[in-house]
Amino acid sequence: MKKLLFTLLCLVFGQSLFAQEAATKKVQAGLIVGSGLNFQELKTDYFSSGGAGTDLSVGMNFNFNFTETIGLCTGLEFDFSNTRYKANDTIFYRFTDKEIIRRGDYDASKNYGVFQLASRIDKSIYLSIPTMLLFRTKFIGYFRYFGKFGLRNSFLLKTESFDKGYEYKSGSSDNILVDKANMTTKSNMLFYKGAIGIAGGAEWNFSGSTSLVGELGYYYGITPLYWERSADSEKLSLYQSGINNGTGNDTYSPIKARQSQLMMKVSILF
């Protein structure tokens, strides 16, 4: 009985020391991994959302603790994001190999392929830097709970389009349903994506100053996902054929969209 009591006292005392060590740290750093869904708000008659996309985030984060209960959370995260949408109208683009041709780059002397777009998945890689205020409770045993509020700043590193639709080949009247992978367009997506975020979760101090953290957050997009150019811009690539629209002239259209994200993250802090 005395041994059992002694063991329990050791556990309680050790728990208190662990929590105190983690609570007094001014800087915490560690690794983070997250996944979630993104949702597109499209503002154009030609396109609509193709359903929720997916996000995968990996990187490292830092907590700068001003007091035991207030701090600043930041870090460097690589986001692998899929954005889905579909065409509501008969929309085309011209291409050569893996490059989608913009209006200003069109050369009438060249023989381009023509593709009727039915749906598209944009696969993008971003470098994200969150800057969020951190509000926490004091440790209750091994655990403390927190909320975050602030900005998520994402910078585009790479994007490719994976398209489904009909390919029109020169000298043929057959329309072939195909998938076109790894298509690229110059200056299509905006290089910066900003979002206001709110998140909450719990921190488990399981050893010394080392903690396991889980959180759920929602990030509301405040910047356009694509360049919102005018209809006469030379940098547009998607168009409605003059034959289809009855004017005899191709009508180009930008993609206007904003994106919100729902993400669950797990990190380990030292």
Task: Give the topology.
Elements: H1 2-23, E1 27-42, E2 47-49, E3 53-65, E4 70-96, E5 99-101, E6 113-136, E7 143-168, E8 175-183, E9 192-207, E10 210-221, E11 239-240, H2 242-245, E12 251-252, E13 257-269
Antiparallel strand pairs: 1-3, 1-13, 2-4, 3-4, 4-5, 4-6, 6-7, 7-8, 7-9, 9-10, 10-13, 11-12
Can you tell me about this structure?
The protein is mainly beta and 270 residues long. The chain has one domain (2-269). 10% of the residues lie in helices and 61% in strands. The chain has two helices and 13 strands; from the N terminus they run H-E-E-E-E-E-E-E-E-E-E-E-H-E-E. The chain has helices at residues 2-23, 242-245; strands spanning 27-42, 47-49, 53-65, 70-96, 99-101, 113-136, 143-168, 175-183, 192-207, 210-221, 239-240, 251-252, 257-269. Strands 1-3-4-6-7-9-10-13 form an eight-stranded antiparallel beta barrel. Strands 11-12 form a two-stranded antiparallel sheet. The chain is elongated, with a radius of gyration of 25 Å. The model is unreliable at 2-18 (pLDDT under 50).
Pick out its properties.
270 residues, mainly beta, two-stranded antiparallel ribbon, 2 helices, 61% strand, disordered N terminus
Shape label = elongated
Instruction: Give the termini separation.
Output: 37 Å
Structural class: mainly beta
Mean pLDDT: 87
What is the share of helical residues?
Answer: under 10%
In the residues, how many domains can be counted? 1
Question: Strand percentage, roughly?
Answer: over 45%
Number of strands: 13
Largest sheet properties: 8 strands, antiparallel, barrel
Question: Which radius of gyration do the C-alpha atoms yield?
Answer: 25 Å
Poorly predicted segments: 2-18
Strand order of the largest sheet: 1-3-4-6-7-9-10-13
Q: How many distinct helices?
A: 2
Helix and strand pattern: HEEEEEEEEEEEHEE
